Amino acid sequence: MIIYLNGQYIEEKDATLSPFDHGFLYGIGVFETFTSLAGQVFLLDWHLERLNQSLRDLCIESTIEKPFVLDIIHTLLNQNHITDGHARIRFNVSAGRGNGFSADPYEEPIIFVMISPFRPESLLDEKQGVILHTRRNTPEGPRRLKSHHYMNNLLAKREVGNDPSIEGIFLTKEDDVAEGITSNVFWRKEDMIYTPSLDTGILNGITRRYCIETLCALRVSLIEGRYPVSHLLSADEAWMTNSVQGIVPFRRIGEIALPKNNRTISTKLRTQYTKERLEHKE
């Protein structure tokens, strides 16, 4: 695989990072994961908005511009011979070397980008939700970043295993519904849509934002708040969202079945999201 590393396109085996990089020493770094379809990245502006806010939060002195990102993606597609333009992309910014453990800003961050082939037809049509025993940790700062601090997610993944058809669902320490291991969650009860609010400590997901804005445009009522797991388990339908898998309904959560014929909202959202992602042009 050819990767991008600070201005160079190199074989992954030749890539090196300094052991003094604070992304390695202290986990000071953030990333975005997204896909390209036929070389086009859906909602890239939103990904970069979140990424740049995270860089400001971490005092990493870099602003990532869209033309820069698109140039890297298209070069990596070519150099990795991904001719259909369908790829999964992880865009990372690590803090770089710092002045020991200090409060100084990071002036020389490390940017590295990895890419691999992506098959849209491999996406699952539904998943099973499992309520995790592992609790969602609280963010290190005022908001959750998509950061290199991933131990909480890893512990949750070990709890449910590697079956791609299963998504673990975190609760907070107060027993409120939080988010999936790599997703946000929504559910419908009668005519109302519910999703955990950001003050539960969840990530402000890009596809979460898409759902909220789309539901608003469709004039479907939605409430962001704090909900016990019993509220989720009494839903008529529920679904998860992330930028790679899109919008995926749950067939069941724990022992509670969620019938296909109740998927009035998730099916509509999934159809529209898939259509817009396929038709999107930069």
Describe the structure.
Belongs to the class-IV pyridoxal-phosphate-dependent aminotransferase family. It comes from Bacillus zhangzhouensis. By secondary structure, this protein is α+β, with helices and mostly antiparallel strands. β14 and β15 form a beta hairpin. It folds into two domains: about 120 residues, Aminotransferase class 4, branched-chain amino acid transferase, N-terminal domain (D-amino Acid Aminotransferase, Chain A, domain 1, 2-Layer Sandwich), CATH 3.30.470.10; about 150 residues, D-amino Acid Aminotransferase, subunit A, domain 2 (D-amino Acid Aminotransferase, Chain A, domain 2). The strands form two sheets. Strands 7, 8, 9, 10, 11, 12, 13, 14 and 15 form a nine-stranded mixed β-sheet that branches. A six-stranded antiparallel β-sheet has the order 2-1-6-5-3-4. Helix content is about 25%, strand content about 30%. It is built from seven helices and 15 strands.
